[in-house]
Automatic annotation (TrEMBL):
Keywords: Cytoplasm, Hydrolase, Protease, Thiol protease. It comes from the Eukaryota. Belongs to the peptidase C15 family. The keyword Isomerase does not apply. PANTHER family: PROTEASE FAMILY C15 PYROGLUTAMYL-PEPTIDASE I-RELATED, PYROGLUTAMYL-PEPTIDASE I. The lineage of its organism: Eukaryota, Metazoa, Ecdysozoa, Arthropoda, Hexapoda. It comes from Ranatra chinensis. The keyword Hydrolase applies. GO terms for biological process: proteolysis. InterPro entries: Peptidase_C15, Peptidase_C15-like, Peptidase_C15-like_sf. This is Pyroglutamyl-peptidase I. GO terms for molecular function: cysteine-type peptidase activity.
Length: 154
């Protein structure tokens, strides 16, 4: 049986932060014997906090890696783990690290106005809590910044 291919991303520095905690966590995953323990093939990448780079890189990397599962890890104020239930195509108003924002606040990739995860998030949250005693919060209030945009990329 073929191994499940997992594409895992963290993000580069942003808004005065020399390091991004999402990348600091993600870059450790390959050192944890994860591929062997979970019988997966893992690809790990750091993404720049730049709209145009996300729109170009994510589709290219997905084409190259052909992942079964893509997980983009972001950090928000250190308030536990939050999983975004969906991403929206419109409403991006915050500039990225090179002071750019999508024209009209609309991301240029993907065709859906809203993209919902296919993962059973309540089950994931319960399972994670049962194993770790750490809650995962399911977010229906995703921010509209470059970190959410990557979810819409085909």
């Amino acid at each position: 049986m073929d191994k499940t291919v997992v594409f895992l991303t963290g993000f580069g520095p942003f808004e005065g932060h020399e390091t991004n905690a999402s990348w600091e966590a993600v870059k450790l995953v390959p050192t944890l014997n994860t591929e062997e323990e979970l019988s997966i093939k893992l690809f790990v990448e750091q993404l720049p906090v730049v709209y145009s780079s996300i729109e170009k890189l994510v589709p290219e990397l997905k084409l190259a890696y052909k992942p079964d599962v893509t997980i983009h890890v972001g950090v928000y104020n250190g308030r536990g783990i939050r999983i975004e239930e969906f991403a929206k195509k419109k409403g991006y108003t915050k500039n990225d690290i090179i002071d750019n924002c999508p024209k009209g606040g609309i991301c240029s990739t993907g065709s859906d106005d809203v993209l919902c995860t296919q993962i059973n998030l309540p089950l994931l949250s319960r399972t994670f809590f049962n194993e770790t005693k750490q809650p995962i919060y399911i977010s229906k209030e995703a921010g509209k910044y470059v970190l959410l945009l990557r979810t819409l990329c085909p």
